Amino acid sequence: MYTEAIASYMKALEHTEVLPYAEFGLGSVYVSLDEGDVALERFGAAEAALRDMPQHTHPELVYRIHYNTGVVRFEKGDYAGATAAFRSALEADGSRIEAKRNLELSLLSLSRSNTEAASGAVQANQDRTEKAEAGATALFDYLRRKEQDQWKSREWIEDTPVSGPDY
Fold it and tell me: pLDDT tens digits, residue range 34-63?
């Protein structure tokens, strides 16, 4: 019943006292619809709406906004963003084991992706070096052939017999 939920949350956006909750609800619906980018926008809007309200009165909402932002960013492969979001969630409520676990997974994934990126950069660098060496070898072979051709006689001309003394 996503359509009905979206319609209800859109109506709730008209009321400033529940605006952050309505934005968060819309973001949650979009997460369920695999619309991660739109969900992130809605979570960001919910966080912005909370800035106008005292945060100590909405700690659960603050936690859930950051936690769900981390989940979406992790699914998108943005491990650095997910790490930051899970840290923010833990700042809101440090007792949540699922946020701690997901923070650890994000850090591991970030470390692996950095290692793979570094390994890929090293491999690309090796490939460029090999291509450069192959190009240099081809160039040196070409120059060597040209140098040898320069010293070779272009055509063979038979010596004319000399009838005089050979000194």
Answer: 999 999 999 999 999 888 776 567 889 999
> Is residue 112 a part of any domain in this protein?
yes
Q: What is the pLDDT of residues 94-132, one digit of tens each?
A: 899 999 999 999 999 888 887 776 665 556 566 666 665
- What's the rounded Cα separation, in Å, for the pair 97 and 73? 19
Q: How buried is residue 12: exposed, middle or buried, by Cβ count under 10 Å (0-12/13-18/19+)?
A: middle
Closest Cα partner for 102 from 114, 116, 89?
A: 89
- CATH number for 50: 1.25.40.10
Q: At CB < 8 A and 24+ separation, what contacts does 94-99 make? A: 96/63, 96/67, 98/67, 99/63, 99/67, 99/70
pTM listed for this prediction: 0.67
Range of the domain at 143: 2-147
In order of 2, 22, 145, the CA distances from 16 in angstroms are 23, 10, 83
